[in-house]
Amino acid sequence: MHEKGLLIVLSGPSGVGKGTVRKEIFSQPNTAFQYSISMTTRAPREGEVDGIDYFFRKREEFEEMIEQGKLLEYAEFVGNYYGTPVDYVKETLERGKDVFLEIEVQGARQVREKFPDGLFIFLMPPSLTELKNRIVTRGTETDDVIQNRLQAAKEEIEMMNLYDYVVENDQVERACEKINAIVIAEHCRRERVESRYKKMLEVE
Amino acid sequence: MHEKGLLIVLSGPSGVGKGTVRKEIFSQPNTAFQYSISMTTRAPREGEVDGIDYFFRKREEFEEMIEQGKLLEYAEFVGNYYGTPVDYVKETLERGKDVFLEIEVQGARQVREKFPDGLFIFLMPPSLTELKNRIVTRGTETDDVIQNRLQAAKEEIEMMNLYDYVVENDQVERACEKINAIVIAEHCRRERVESRYKKMLEVE
């Protein structure tokens, strides 16, 4: 008997550096997560390899998968589809391996509906703390700049609602350490461990 | 403005190795927790220092503290009192530092009532997994031994109920790594971060 894997979802506002953090995590030799490769209809860029960077698919194929419910989440950006094939995620979790998704905020919302006990991590721009400092010290920014950033910060805080954890992306290495710690901790959560132990004793 | 510290409570069945794990954690140079020194009426043992290993107090002094509600938790073992002075814990948390308690299961129950949002970690003997293996392989133990261990295991699982996390003490270093990860993760929990961010923006 083995424990099922955890579904780890890293998301956050666009431009926050999700891809950089994900690459750093998967560059570490001891990473125990399985990265879930996304599917897209956009053309491969220089150096991108099918089945490594993305599954590159034709638009018709992608739409067929949508119709057949074979995508855990998907979205369209500037005329191209991006999505996560669900079968691969489910099979990997069943094998007891943690699966790591790095997706947009809309996608994370779709995943939450299908995997409510996934582990949802919100990557936060570090600028909120900086913003606070600027407001306190004053005079260094125009009121407009501050007002715009304040508005953006409020929207970011609203987005957090769906998530279990918030990691500030002040330094990539620190953010990765925190994400690794969160996964270790989640594997120790009493609810998960208790039910596993109880099952063990049922053998009697 | 700073975040309040976390109250970390390490407990578990007697003999599980709580003291060993606690000592290992505090032997690490980068430990950011503050260890809460217990108070006791027992005599110092060879090499023990007042204010480092314990606060050594007379029975009357201890009972006066109980009456005045100055103990976060206390218990009596073989004729001696052991307890945690509450003022030190509260002051340290207010200063934004995490406080680490290593206490018996009865004490942890008392602390949970007073600090419901503390971080409660149950240190679990590794023998449950071993036990399972023995039952599966059979023949290596008498039925009595297995029955006694099964009973103990069931009681340990019952005890877990109060706790947020369960850490198996299979190896001291691994247990410490998990405890450190749990504390890092808890500092990233959305509920904690969100309210801090919201307060930041109230400055406006």
Automatic annotation (TrEMBL), chains A, B:
SMART domains documented for this protein: GuKc
Q: What is its main location?
A: cytoplasm
Gene Ontology MF terms = ATP binding; GMP kinase activity
Q: Can you tell me which family this protein belongs to? A: Belongs to the guanylate kinase family.
Substrates-to-products reaction catalysed: GMP + ATP = GDP + ADP
Q: Which ranges carry the Guanylate kinase-like domain?
A: 5-184
Q: Keywords on this record? A: ATP-binding, Cytoplasm, Kinase, Nucleotide-binding, Transferase
The protein's job, in short, is:
Essential for recycling GMP and indirectly, cGMP.
Spell out the SUPFAM superfamilies in the cross-references.
Answer: P-loop containing nucleoside triphosphate hydrolases (SSF52540)
The protein depicted here goes by the name Guanylate kinase
- Gene Ontology terms: cellular component: cytosol
Query: What EC number(s) does the entry state?
Result: 2.7.4.8
